[in-house]
Every structure is written in C-alpha cells, then in structure tokens.
Design a protein that fits this description.
Belongs to the class I-like SAM-binding methyltransferase superfamily. C5-methyltransferase family. The chain has 450 residues and is α/β, with parallel strands linked by helices. The chain contains 17 helices and 15 strands. Strands 1, 2, 3, 4, 5, 6, 9, 10 and 11 form a nine-stranded mixed beta sheet that branches. Strands 7-8 form a two-stranded antiparallel ribbon. A two-stranded antiparallel sheet has the order 12-13.
Length: 450
C-alpha cells in the first residue's frame, strides 16, 4: 500500500478518494476544530494538538500512541508544523522517513474568482508548505488541488500560477502538465453529480526521471461511456423532507438492484449509487457495516421562516432569487417580489437546482445558494454530501449552521470546502499506476545491477 501525507486535509474528501485508490495517510494536518473531528471520526485518525507536539519535540514517543498505525492528525497551522516534527512522527510512529506522495489543497479563497483576490494575500504562499514537506520526506509525487481562479490570479502584478510552476521546479519536482485544458478537471466528467471545476497539479520527484502520471480519461458526458449523473439521481432514496423535518438518525432503503435489473435506472447512476450506499468502495474497519448503509445521519432540513418558504416557492428550476424576481416583475407581479424578496437581489443566492442535470458548484455558502429541485427548502448536509459524492456512511461533525466567518466550520461549510470524492478517486487511481511504474523500473534496475 502506498503512503502519503495529507496537508490542508479538510473534512477528508481527498483522503476518501485516495483510500479508495489504495493509499494510506500517515500524517494529516488540519486547523479547523470541527473539521478535524470529522476527519478523525470517518478515518479513525488520532488527533494531536500541534502545541503538544512542539512542546515535546525530540521526545514524541512520550505522547504518540506507538501501539497502532493509525493516521496522526495534527490539529494546527501548517506553517508551524516544522520539518523536524514531520520526520520524528514518521520515524517513531511508522518507522519510516519517506512517503510516496504529499497531497493537499491549500485554502482557495485568495485564488477564487468569487473571492476578493487581493494582491499579496498571505494565503497565496501556503502551497510552499507542501513543497517544503515533500522535499523533507523525499516524496515521489506531489498532488496539488485548487480552484481554476489560480490560473489567472496575480499578486503584486505577478501571475501566481507561473510562480507555483517555478517553485515546483526549484524544489526538484517536474509537473506532468501545465496545459490549462489538461490540469483543469470537471467533476461531472468523472461521475460526480456536480459541474465543479478544479485544477490538479501532479509532479514527480526529479530523482525518478520523467513524470509517469497520465490524467484520467473523461468517463461521463455526451459521447462517453456514461451519461452525467444528475441532481435527481443523486438525491434518490433519501427520505423526503419539508422545511424543519428530519431526525439525526434515519433509516434508508435502496432499491437500485431491482430497478437496474428492470432497466428503470441507467448504468451511470447504478455505479454511482453502489459507491454511495457502501456496496462498493473503501469502508473503514471501525465503521460497522454489513453490505449497505441502513441508517444515515446529517439529513435534517433547515426550519426556514414562512417568508423564505414563500420566496422559494416562486423560484423555478435553474433560477436564483435575482432571475426569479426579474421574471415576476416582467409578469406584472411586483407585489410578490416586494413581499417575499429582499431589496438587494443576489444572482448566486437561492438557486433552485435543475433535476435533470448535474448541480452547479457546491461551495462553503451552499446553504444560502442551493435550493432543493422539488421542495421549497435548502439542501440538507446529507444532500450536499451526495452532490460531492461522499458515501452515505460519511458523517460531518459539529453544528448544522453557524455564522459563516466562524472558525468552527458547520456541516455545510465543511462539505462545501471538500474535494469531490469520485474525482479524487479517478486521479488517485492514475497516481497509483504511476507509482507502480516507478516500482517496476526500480526492480528492473536492481535486477540488471545483479
């Protein structure tokens, strides 16, 4: 099994995708409290506060649990996790000094087209910590994820993307591609029910020659093996809820086997729901499971005020509050807009999903942005997780809703910030193949030497 270090780990979307491709995280680093709890719960990781590791540096055997090989989840700021701590954890906990991959998606707010994109934003340089640690542990590959805005962001009139390319080279890592059409991946093309674009940079340690990583072939969409997975399909089998309804634990019954046999559902959705239900794919040993998930969590609908429910009832599929209000005004229904809509209309707010196509991008603001395609309410965290292709056994910790700037991220923010699982799985499978090729070349060289 190949090993990796999971930086900017978030709630574990990247980890779930990597584990489905046969990778094991030895160390993970994450700063947000609730997000750390989510990662630990679903991946059976052991949480260590960074300040405790710093205080005991040099004698970490005193606080590390050396009786197992569970992932060491460091709760703290990556900038304060120095190289010595990384190496000491690897040596004393896992008896290694190297890993195969260093992976992560640095915070994207400063790169995002939806953000302020401030010149000189300190978050622009967080990616350098990935390269610092990769160099320290001599990883064979670096796997870097971020938003497409990265490709156009400038800091002090310098293109950030060009700086990142230079830094990879300076640290001795060769990128598989810098072609923007290649490195920019659409999640829907890989079985995720969401039109979410992300940039993935995959670089090999120059010690291992030319980059052997090949970006995966697109599998979903017109003219491909499968049609896109739609929102309606993604939400299938979940208990139907109106505003304010739902319990913390609810039974779920899937009937996809019989429906597939009767050709009532297509192969694309069948493959998706097998993964979501837990029939196929990686499932942690610590989570009780005997075939498919029978009880789900995180499926509670927000108890909207009646004014909000009335507003949502006038928004049609594919419309947001601004577009709906404009349509109503054009139809001579200004009184409805005045009664139920805010004075300032936002195009990205209260957008009702189209049932028969993938969703638009799930973001950390998904509670305010996404409206159920049929019911007059926002999505539940479980429904949002479905759009991100998290399996139904995956549980998000913390509060359902908190103020958006609160460092204790709620369930919606965590899910919206995550990397879509099935997209990562497709890329990680190709990364495993590239590592297999390195192993084969190494064995051939040893054989020739003998």
């Amino acid at each position: 099994m190949y090993t990796y270090i999971d930086l900017f780990a978030g709630p574990g979307g990247l980890c779930t995708g990597f584990k489905n491709a046969g990778f094991k995280p030895l160390i993970a680093v994450e700063m947000s409290d609730n997000t750390v709890k989510t990662y630990a719960r679903n991946h059976d990781a052991e949480i260590y506060k960074l300040e405790d590791l710093i205080e005991n540096k040099g004698t970490l055997e005193l606080i590390l649990n050396l009786k197992n090989e569970k992932t060491v989840l460091i709760h703290g700021d990556i900038r304060l996790v120095d190289n010595e701590i990384i190496l000491e954890v690897l040596n004393k906990k896992f008896n290694v000094s190297k890993v195969d991959v260093v992976a992560g998606g640095p915070p994207c707010e400063s790169f995002s087209l939806a953000g302020k994109r401030l010149d000189g934003d300190e978050r622009d340089n967080l990616f350098e910590n990935m390269l610092r640690i990769a160099h320290t542990v001599e990883s064979k590959y670096v796997f870097f994820e971020n938003v497409p805005g990265l490709l156009t962001k400038k800091s002090n009139d310098i293109n950030i993307f060009n700086v990142i390319i230079d830094e990879f080279n300076n640290h001795g890592y060769k990128l598989a591609s810098t072609d923007k059409n290649t490195i920019k991946c659409l999640a829907a093309d890989y079985g995720v029910p969401q039109n979410r674009e992300r940039v993935f940079l995959v670089a090999i340690n120059e010690k291992y020659g030319e980059n052997k990583f090949i970006y995966p072939e697109k599998t979903h969409g017109d003219g491909r093996k499968f049609p896109y997975v739609t929102v309606g399909e993604a939400l299938k089998y979940l208990p139907k809820l109106n505003k304010g309804e739902g319990e913390e634990f609810q039974k779920i019954k899937y009937s996809y086997e019989e429906e597939y046999k009767n050709k009532e559902i297509n192969e694309s959705f069948y493959e998706y729901i097998k993964f979501i239900s837990g029939k196929e794919g990686y499932i942690p040993e610590h989570i009780k499971h005997d075939g498919i998930v029978k009880v789900i969590e995180n499926h509670k609908a927000v108890n909207h005020r009646e004014k909000m429910v009335n507003r949502l009832s006038y928004i049609e599929q594919g419309e947001g509050m601004k577009k709906a209000a404009e349509r109503l005004i054009n139809d001579g229904k200004q009184d409805i807009v005045t009664m139920y809509f805010p004075k300032k209309l936002y195009a990205a707010r209260n957008r009702r999903l189209r049932e028969n196509e993938p969703s638009f991008t799930v973001t950390s603001h998904c509670l305010d942005e996404m409206v159920h395609p049929i019911n007059d309410r926002g999505l539940t965290p479980r429904e949002t997780a479905r759009l991100q292709s998290f399996p139904d056994w995956y549980v998000f910790e913390g509060e359902y809703v908190k103020f958006h700037s609160d460092p204790l991220q709620d369930k919606y923010e965590q899910c919206g910030d995550a990397i879509p699982v099935l997209l990562v799985k497709s890329l990680a499978n190709k990364l495993r193949i590239a590592l297999d090729n390195i192993e084969k070349e190494t064995l051939n060289e040893v054989a020739i030497t003998k």
